[in-house]
Amino acid sequence: MPADDVARVRAHYADRHALYAARFSFDRPEVRWAWSRFTAEFAPQIDLALRRAAVDLGRARILDLGCGSGRVLRWLMGRGIPSARLLGADLIMPRLAQARRLAPAIGLAMADGVCLPCRDGAFDVALALTTLSSMPSEPMRRGAAAELLRVVRPGGAVICYEFSHKNPLNRYTVAVGAAALRALFPGAEVACRRVTLHPMVLRALFGLGPRVLAALERIDALRSHVLAVITRR
User: Fold this and answer.
1) Which of 3, 177, 206, 230 is most exposed, with the fewest beta carbons within 10 Å of its own?
2) What pLDDT, in 10s, does the model give residues 9-23?
3) What CATH class does 3-231 carry?
């Protein structure tokens, strides 16, 4: 990966931590609600990908690229995937240190998405959750997409969860919607759906309660992300 792209990603997360750490804290009820809604959407996609790959949870091999603090890895362990069959990769050493504290038994690697320290077809599923949309250049995103497919075995899947529209309040992210994902993964089967109540709407209207928020989440125009299952043929 070009050194300037790496520097930009690291600067992004240094700024984000300094400015927004409190906003994304799990101590906030709206953050916990958003996490519960994400996992409710995400869990069936993991299960579907593993069924199609003909592997059960206890034998699944999963990579989380851009694993951050390790919350998804820990959640996967809670669903029955052994820690020895999980690998988290991230560019940011403080985030990997957080992941080590949260999920100490899981393998972790400091690596960029363009050159992963993994053999071809090493995983049944690879995850990129708000990872591609955090990459500042198109060549970086294309390189990461190619690497994600390389390390997934034929019949396995890449699962992406990305911002489908540019966030005007975050200059570090780009939109990676359904069309962009299909272009990044040519030759693969790409199934996309819009999900997630826009974070700005959630924060503004959280006091209205979960029933109202769930109703708002069903309005397509208020959904901010795309969840995609990309099957390697």
Assistant:
1) 3
2) 777 766 665 555 667
3) alpha beta
